[in-house]
Amino acid sequence: MSKLKLLIAIALLVQIAVFVTWLVSFKPEEEIALEKLGGNAFRFPPHLLYKDNLEFGYISSKNRSDYNIVIGVTTKWHRKGWPLMRLLHSLMENMNQQEREETLIVVFIGEVNMLIVQRIVDELELRHKQHLESGLIDIIAPDRHYFPDLEQLRLQPTDTYALVKQQSKQNLELAFLMSYARNKGLFYVQLEDHMLSLQPQFVSTMKRFAYIKSALGNPKLPSWFVLDFNAASIAGKLFKCAELPYFINYLQMFYNDMNSLQLLHFFIQTKVCYHQKMSELRCERNMQRYWLKYDTALFGQSMLTKVSSTTTAAEPQTRVLVSSSMSAYQHYILSSVYLGERYYIGRLPAFEELPQPGDVVQFIFQQPTLLRSYIIRSGSTAEPLKRLYNTNVEVRPALEISALQLANEYNVTEDEFLIVGAFDSRGVAAGMLDASIGALQELRLRIQDFRDHEVLLNEIKLELIE
């Protein structure tokens, strides 16, 4: 039995090796035609037919084309924070060094206003300079003539203009991004900036699934076209780079007619349900072989969730007043998180006024109170960029500091607060207070540097001494 298993494993490895060799060398007819036409995928839509020498509005690339996985990310300008940075952070956290070396992340900025494009580029260069220089991240933006007049789209009686405009623009964005990525690697994965990576080593998981399904496929039946790692939208879908031109053409022809996920469905239906006499059941089976689904979602939506209570009835919340120099987002108020109801998200109204040095979160005791310990958690797995860093935990004793003789043990601020702790790399501040500090008037969190995103607190627990 062990010899049989060994022979099966060897046969499987040989099939995978043959498939990879074919995938590297194979170029479908559409791709060869596109190369001969000088990349006319960018000029296929009717409004571009008479525009020559269409170029990128912006491009930053190391011009490599030997990657195993190419991840395409569509993004745009957001007034409220940077969902793109959250996504990139989750991708980096869930890739090991080997996966980073064989992966390219292409960020497509769906804007034609170069001032907006440059602002997003500046933020990427600030936060991911190392990854841009190493070739892990490319940045592209379309020429200002790429999109058609989105005010003149066709509408069906049941359509809303806003929806048709959004999905038409997204289809053309995907076509542009896929056209750029098709020569960069073996496999292409589509993502959007509001997504998050949910599992460690997701690159190896996707690659292994693709190799196994390719090697075990029946040569007499159509090979898979798409692998699905997130069922909710076009995001999370994996394609063979060599076969992308098929779907690119479909996106360009029907960009005004339906959303990208519907187009993918009808594209595959057209490929495998090829005559009218085919039964509905057989058509569905063929589509399932062409569109394979992984059993666990590797990507998910970035969203806010509620948290369970972090305090008990014995803890006297009513003795503490909570406030912040940062305004709260909608109904997620600071007192709510202290009572354990939901997140507190602090930010100032305009983008230029996100949290900055000197902003504070305050816990003011109505009467001098002894504090044994504190635990304050910021950010979350879904919102890692909203963790607090470079933020001190400071307390104001009820007695004058000079009377406590603590000058040599703690740093003291100009307004007579003792610095008793700080947030660590996980966005957590926790500590026990020295009994010699005595009763407190106030505990506060003081931000030390500029923030380019909101502050999120999901647990505040103060252990008081009665």
Q: How is this structure best described in words?
A:
This protein is of the alpha+beta class. The chain has two domains: 27-301, Alpha-Beta Complex (Spore Coat Polysaccharide Biosynthesis Protein SpsA, Chain A), CATH 3.90.550.10; 317-465, Galactose-binding domain-like (Jelly Rolls). It has helices spanning 2-25, 29-36, 83-93, 97-101, 114-134, 161-181, 202-215, 244-253, 260-272, 280-290, 334-338, 401-404; strands at 58-60, 67-75, 103-109, 137-141, 185-192, 195-197, 226-228, 237-240, 291-293, 299-301, 320-324, 344-346, 360-378, 391-397, 411-412, 418-422, 428-432, 440-447, 455-465. The strands form three sheets. Strands 11, 12, 13, 14, 15, 16, 17, 18 and 19 form a nine-stranded antiparallel β-sheet that branches. The protein has an eight-stranded mixed β-sheet with strand order 1-4-3-2-5-8-7-9. The longest helix has 24 residues, at 2-25. The radius of gyration is 27 Å and the shape is elongated. The relative contact order is 0.11.
Characteristics:
Spore Coat Polysaccharide Biosynthesis Protein SpsA, Chain A, alpha+beta, Glyco_transf_54, glycosyltransferase, 2 domains, 12 helices, MGAT4_A/B/C_C, 8-stranded mixed β-sheet, Maker745, transferase, Jelly Rolls, 466 residues, elongated
Topology:
Layout: H1 2-25, H2 29-36, E1 58-60, E2 67-75, H3 83-93, H4 97-101, E3 103-109, H5 114-134, E4 137-141, H6 161-181, E5 185-192, E6 195-197, H7 202-215, E7 226-228, E8 237-240, H8 244-253, H9 260-272, H10 280-290, E9 291-293, E10 299-301, E11 320-324, H11 334-338, E12 344-346, E13 360-378, E14 391-397, H12 401-404, E15 411-412, E16 418-422, E17 428-432, E18 440-447, E19 455-465
Parallel strand pairs: 2-3, 2-5, 3-4, 7-9
Antiparallel strand pairs: 1-4, 5-8, 6-10, 7-8, 11-13, 12-19, 13-17, 13-18, 13-19, 14-16, 14-18, 15-16
Helix pairs in contact: 1-7, 6-8
